[in-house]
Amino acid sequence: MNEQRQYITHVNLSGYKSIQNLECDFEDGLNIIIGDNGSGKSNFFEFLHFCFTGEVNRLYNFSAGVELNGKPGLIEWNNTLKVFEEGHELYGLPYTDVPNFPLRYEFVQFNMPHELSVLADELVINFDLNKSKIASGAIKPIAPLFATHFVRIVNRILRNTRSITDDLLLEQLNTAFNIDYATFKESVGAYTPVEDIRISNALRISKVSSDVVEIRNLLFEYKINGSWFSWNGLSDGTKRMIYLIGVLCGYNSADQSIAPKVVFIEEPEIGIHPHQLHLILNFLRERSKNQQIFISTHSPQVLDILNADELNKIIIAEITAKDGTKFRHLSEAEMNKAQLYFKDEGLLSEYWRFSDLQRTEKI
């Protein structure tokens, strides 16, 4: 399967919560799934997440099929994962024997995880100078994935010297960060209120024993309106934006050199000021040039990210007592009406609010 460009073109799913029989086509780049609360948007993301991670113990009497890259190949689940390409079965194995799933993806839920992909908390590292390596079990707390690179940097720096000052280590860490995470820093500066990021000046090295040194206060600081703040000093909306940028840049993965090909994002508008939402949506649009991005939302404002010729990227989530969750694209007639309104008014969100496109049945 194409490793350079991976995206989901079709799914058929059944057997999870409100998803009884859902089938839908998707576009490369952006896909915006809009619907009322309770229409099944999160169920859709969770269903695919459980399939992709092999957590089928959460599912019962289910079936699922996912087509990648618009090819005849299909990935099917039903207690066994089967992968096809060009109509030929590559493998069909129980989940316990499944090789690495052939799609690099991320699922960003509306609530941020406990262990963030940013250095939100102080990272404490003990280094054994005699053995020239990080002391076993001496990273406190367990490093979030974003911090593993800094552990490697510390390891490299201290392996080359038995004597290093706080200022020299701080300088070398900031230099490495500015080089290795340039895309992350640039994106945060362009799409959030944060003007700059640095390693805290509070970083300190102290001797634990003749052979072991301890590095404390390894964490980020964020510059806003000329002042530096810790993670806890940021607003919830700004934290969420920084986390989202980190995930899309690939820093929530063990292999931080490769960004995810497909990203599912739940309700990016939660906790974010409308102006900041506009910025983060612009970031998502830019990233969608190289990644497939699914956004679930109940906010019509999110639709304003689209141009008049991109209405095919809207998927309406609806639910009925009889059929459960269904996804549908706009009909040709609905697209024509929306384009006329778009031409006159310029805001798709306003058209959505006053249209009859949403037909969710209250159940």
Automatic annotation (TrEMBL):
The keyword Cell cycle does not apply. Pfam families: AAA_21, AAA_23. Gene3D superfamilies: P-loop containing nucleotide triphosphate hydrolases (3.40.50.300). InterPro entries: ATPase_AAA_core, Bact_Antivir_Def_Nuclease, P-loop_NTPase, Rad50/SbcC_AAA, RecF-like. Keywords: ATP-binding, Nucleotide-binding. Residues 217-304 form the ATPase AAA-type core domain. Coiled coil: none annotated. PANTHER family: ATP/GTP PHOSPHATASE (PTHR43581), ATP_GTP PHOSPHATASE (PTHR43581:SF4). This is ATP-binding protein.
